[in-house]
Amino acid sequence: MYSAKTLKIVGLLACFLNLAPVAANEGKAFFEDNAKKPGVVSTDSGLQYKIIKEGTGVSPKAADLVQVHYHGTLPNGDVFDSSVKRGKPTSFALNQVIKGWTEGLQTMKQGGKTIFYIPPGIAYGEREVGPIPANSTLIFEVELLKVSPMNMPKTLAEVQAFKLASMGCGKPPVLPGDKSQLASIKAAAEEYTACAREYYKHVSMQMDGLIQVAQGGNEAMRDAVLDKLRESKKSVAAQLDAAVAFVKSYEEMKAL
Questions:
Q1: Which of 49, 81, 132, 250 is catalytic?
Q2: Mean pLDDT confidence for 171-188
Q3: Are the beta carbons of 98 and 121 closer than 8 angstroms?
């Protein structure tokens, strides 16, 4: 006969070993039921989505930079992440997130809002990520605020003609003489800071894209990319240096 302790351990092991199949079966049932609901579209990858508001702008490509507001929940309603709750949209390159996002956002147009139902296979799979358990189905309500096309060059001539983005944020606000007047430039300062950060993300992605172009090209293409990066370095650095200096001074004044 097995002791009560042994039976308890065996029971716990059996429970643990059955977690993945149970989660998979529950996920399968969820998607089968969800597919029957009005407006829900299913794709070959298992992704499902429902358009809440049709956008009118451009659709992003996989390498583009996007700005979104999103609210992420598990099927039981638990919120695991939300830019909406934080009150601040987020930006990223679409090919640097989970496959469900990369596929799903390409079905959207700028200005639109969609709910995505993402199975584990194109989410985090068997990994446990923060508050997201392993083998989790993820539900995201996403609003696509902005698409910034990368339009990376494909030929030697296109590399030679390519230009990295200009910051386009204007001059930084003039800091007041003392902290008591700081509120008068708060809105302008925060708008400039946000613009500079977006520029940094965008130009970083362009540089990464150029490096990928070089890696996939011949020696002439690699040399052209290297020349382009050298040529652009001073211009980009000058724009970012001014932004960094302003942000540092602004934050220091706020901390006084």
A1: 81
A2: 88
A3: no
* 31 part of the active site: no
Under a CB-based contact definition with an 8 Å cutoff, are residues 49 and 114 in contact?
A: yes
Helix spans in the chain (H): 4-17, 19-34, 83-86, 99-105, 156-161, 186-215, 219-255
> What pLDDT was estimated at residue 63?
79
Measured distance CA(32)–CA(30) in Å, rounded: 6
Task: Give the active site residue among 70, 192, 199, 246.
Answer: 70
Instruction: Write the CB contacts of 65 (distance below 8 Å, at least 6 apart in sequence).
Output: 91, 92, 93, 94, 147, 148, 150, 201, 202, 205
Q: Is 70 a catalytic residue?
A: yes
With beta carbons less than 8 A apart as the criterion, state whether 126 and 132 touch.
no
30 is catalytic: no
Sign of CA dihedral 114, 96, 215, 202: positive
| Token couple for 127 | 């990994």
Cα 166 from chain centroid (whole Å): 22
pLDDT above 70 coverage of the chain, percent: 90
Distances (CA, A) of 256 to 172, 177, 193, 249: 20, 13, 19, 11
Does CATH place domain 8-148 in 3.40.1620.10?
no
pLDDT-derived band of residue 16, with 50, 70 and 90 as boundaries? very low
